[in-house]
Amino acid sequence: MKTPLRGLWLSGLAGAFFASLVTLPGLGIGTLWDNSETAYAEVAREILRTGDPIVMHFNGTPWFIQPPLYFWIAALFAKFLGMTSFAFRLPSALATIGIGTLVGVATARMIGTRAAVLATLILSASLLHSIIGRLAIMDALLDFGIVWAIFAWVRAIREGDATSSFLAWIALALGVLAKGPIALVIVALVIIPWAWWERQSGVQQYTPTRAGLLSGVLIFALITVPWYVMLSARAGYSALGTLLGHYSVGRYLGIIENQSGPIWYYLPVLVLGFFPWFAFVIPALVSAWNRRNDVSASLERLLIVWSIVPLVFFSLAQTKLPNYIALEMPALAIAVAMWFIRVAELDNRRTALAWSALVPLSILAIALAGVRFSQAMQFGDAFKSLTDLMIKLGIIIAIGAVLCMLLLIKRVSVLFAPWALAGATFGALFVIAFVGLPLVEQFKPIPQLAAVIERERRPGDIVAIQSLGGSNGLIFYTRPHVVTLDAPDDLKPNAQNDPRLVICAAPRAFVVTSQHRPAFDPTYGRNRRVLAKAANAILYLYDGPACL
Predict the structure, then answer these.
(1) Is 24 helix (H, G, I), strand (E, B) or coil?
(2) How far is CA 345 from CA 108, 147, 196, 282, 354, in A?
(3) pLDDT (tens digit, 9 = 90+) per residue, 128-154?
(4) pTM above the 0.90 mark?
């Protein structure tokens, strides 16, 4: 039965509302996280500094690692909202709200409003999805383009809707401008097997006309090609080769920035990323598999392909990061929502209770492991406050999990069970945003030391960092150019990073480094004094006489 327009609007608004709850509150609290947030925010900031939206820059030099969409949007927000955490994180939050809207409308159109609202609730209350929606990175924009393209192609193939086909090409173009050709690959890996499976199941399909296909490819090219052409004209074909070759294909075939992992890397990522709903994934996918051969089970077949094929694809990649698999979350959320509805309809509460028991048990196991770890490491009082907060968060989620189990006991209350678990998750996320994020600021030394540098800095001074993580943050919170120095006891320093050459090259040099200094720690004949300390870092100022 076709869902009325009012149901589509309600589902889309519900998706946007739930996503807003986990992204917008406290979005600007705290400084940006090193390493990715500060790096990407700096690239966006340098668009405004250089006035160049074609060739991205980082630390004052050309940067050919990611396409420009996130940086364009973030620079626009920063221009009007200031260089704030809120401005740089807002593109991800809005993209996540868009994903919630898409999931609500598409699910309502395919199976109804009740499942759609429940799916958007579960999606927003999943850990990895909510985290990515609050970070200054481009993954939420990529996922938005992928989700939009998948749902648009599904409608075009199922219903022969020419407008949906046209919109799918626009969504693909946005995905490519957000993070490169991976958007095309993932959508193809989902849509092509699903369409083949649909045909094998006897479902009528519509093939785009030649004119429609050509017009779609044309609009895709009009959106994506101009920037790549202008980049090549400005920076040469080597820039394009670095962007598409090394950082796209090379990221899959090789290891970039030591971001590797075993073939099973994404299994624990899915467990934690889809927390607290991971306990229901297996029964949900089994339920979808059992209905896979029904002519009416198009959505089940889509969810199976969407959940499995990209997971296998990324598991075979050499470079691995948790955020790569976030695009699985919408499929898993819809599958779990449909499973809860079937539990209520078929009165299969006993199985649901057994699976739901995994949630409080996992919380207990994580809590015990955390306590043992903190005891073994003998962390100080500052870390103890974080441990206490994590325990309280675990208690909040555990209460929601127990309520979920209690509501599963009676058939009339089964569909209220996920609301109890989601409510507890929303509560925990609010605590993290307004209590946890301010608490962890004391563990971020770079913004504190950068503020001292900016206050004391004079024209001609050099800023450097040595033997300490956080170089991207130092670049963002000061002004480019920041030099990364080799260790003082390095026998063969690079000429550009030689501590002696850099420290001696200017009247004054600010050096952020670790408080744990090596035995060989020369001043090169200059005065060295401590300006500030924060966490494990220290800020030195070298000035005075010329180097010996």
Answers:
(1) coil
(2) 18, 29, 30, 19, 18
(3) 999 999 999 999 999 999 999 999 999
(4) yes
